[in-house]
Each structure stands twice: as structure tokens, then as C-alpha cells.
Design goal:
- By secondary structure, the protein is of the alpha+beta class.
- The chain has one domain (about 15-100): START domain (Alpha-D-Glucose-1,6-Bisphosphate, Chain A, domain 4, 2-Layer Sandwich).
- Helix content is about 25%, strand content about 35%.
- It contains 1 helix and 4 strands.
- It has a 4-stranded antiparallel β-sheet with strand order 1-2-3-4, with no helix packed on it.
- A hairpin with a 4-residue loop joins β1 (about 15-20) and β2 (about 25-30).
- GO terms for molecular function: abscisic acid binding; protein phosphatase inhibitor activity; signaling receptor activity.
- This is Bet v I/Major latex protein.
- It holds the Pfam family Bet_v_1.
- Belongs to the BetVI family.
């Protein structure tokens, strides 16, 4: 997996931990990142889509970060991580809107 413009480096391996199509959820872990990240050892993401009463859906994304050694998460790291997750969501949303036939 290759990232751009992020605080976590540029390349990471990704492992799918679980896919639950009936509950519209997926969990995956990023690991073995490049040396530019002195903070993060792994990041486990849990994503779930929940139907809402108005016919739409709610997207929930939780990220659990395991730090390297005594490293601490900074506000900049959190903000850039949120920005990266938001960009990913917007890309998925755009694809879903442009290709409604796949759902």
C-alpha cells in the first residue's frame, strides 16, 4: 500500500483481518512501514457502515495505533491521520456515487 502526503510514511504492508459482508464491516492492519515513521508500529482499522432511518447510512471508522517503543502520538499525527481517513472516505463515496450499479 502506498500513501502520499501523510505523516505515517509512504509504504506499508496491509493485512485484512476480517470481512463481514452481512454486517457491512471490515478490519485491516497496516504494518512493516517504511523508516520515515518513528511513531507507529501498527495501525488496526475497523470500518462499519450502518443503515440510518432516513435511508442513508452512517460510516464509522476506528483506528487503533500501536506505537514504537516509548513513542507518543502527537496532535499533528492525529490530525494528519484524520485527514488521510477523510480523503479515503471521500474517494470511496465518489466511486459509489459514480457506480451505483455495483451496490
Amino acid at each position: 500500500m502506498v500513501f502520499r502526503n501523510t505523516i505515517i510514511g509512504t509504504t506499508w504492508k496491509q493485512k485484512i483481518d476480517a470481512i463481514d459482508t452481512s454486517n457491512l464491516s471490515v478490519s485491516y492492519t497496516l504494518f512493516d512501514g517504511d523508516a520515515s515513521s518513528d511513531i507507529m508500529d501498527t495501525a488496526t482499522h475497523h470500518i462499519k457502515c450502518i443503515s440510518s432511518a432516513n435511508g442513508g447510512s452512517v460510516y464509522k471508522h476506528t483506528c487503533l495505533i500501536k506505537c514504537k517503543g516509548d513513542a507518543k502520538i502527537t496532535d499533528d499525527f492525529i490530525n494528519l491521520s484524520k485527514e488521510s481517513m477523510t480523503d479515503t472516505f471521500k474517494a470511496l463515496e465518489s466511486y459509489a456515487i459514480d457506480h451505483p450499479e455495483i451496490y
